[in-house]
Amino acid sequence: MEEERVSLMERPDLADLLMTVMERDILPLTRAGVEAGNKVFGAALIDKTTGRLVIAGTNNETANPLWHGEVHTLKLFYELPEEDRPDTRDLIFLSTHEPCSMCLSAITWTGFDNFFYFFSHEDSRDAFAIPHDLRILKEVFTLGPGEYARENAFWQSRAISRLIAQAPEDERATLQERARAIAAEYDRLSALYQSGKTGNAIPLN
Ligand SMILES: [Zn+2]
User: Does pTM top 0.90 for this prediction?
Assistant: First the structure.
C-alpha cells in the first residue's frame, strides 16, 4: 500500500505519463486552437498521486494575448467549482514548452512546487520561430538563455528530455521514439500556425 502514496514525480514512469497527457489531452485541444489561429503552446494539471488529469488547455491568444497555454489553463482551472479543484501543491504542472517569464510567475503565484516541459526556450526560438521568451528574459530581466533559477525556493522544474535520458535503458528507445513523434506533430502544427499568422492582430506573434 505504501507504494500508492509515492508521488508520481519520483516514479520512473513519469515521462510516460506526461507524454500520454500531451498526446491524449493537450494535442487535440491544440490542433483545434491552431486551426483558429492560436499558437501551439499547451499545458495540463495532473494529480501528483493518482496521475488523474484535472484540466488541460491550450493557447488562446486570439481572444487575449495573455492567454498563453499555461495561463489559459490556470484560468480554466480557477473556473472549476471549488470542490473539483485540488490544492495546487498536490498537482503536477505540465507545460508543452518551457514557460515564458509571465507563465513562470503565474506558476509561482498559484502555488505550484514544480513544472515539467517538453520543448525548451531555445526550441521555441529555433524550431518554432518564437523568440519572445528569450528576448523578454534578456531585455527585461537581463538574463541570458538558461540563466533563470530552474530550481528555487518556490519550485523545481525539469525537462521531459532529461527524464527520458534518465529512464531505464530498456525503456529509453521507446520513449525517445514517442518523443520524436510528438515533436513531429508539433512541427506540423507550428508550420500551420506560421502560415496563417500574417495579418493577425497579436502584438508579439
Ligand atoms: Zn507564457
Answer: yes
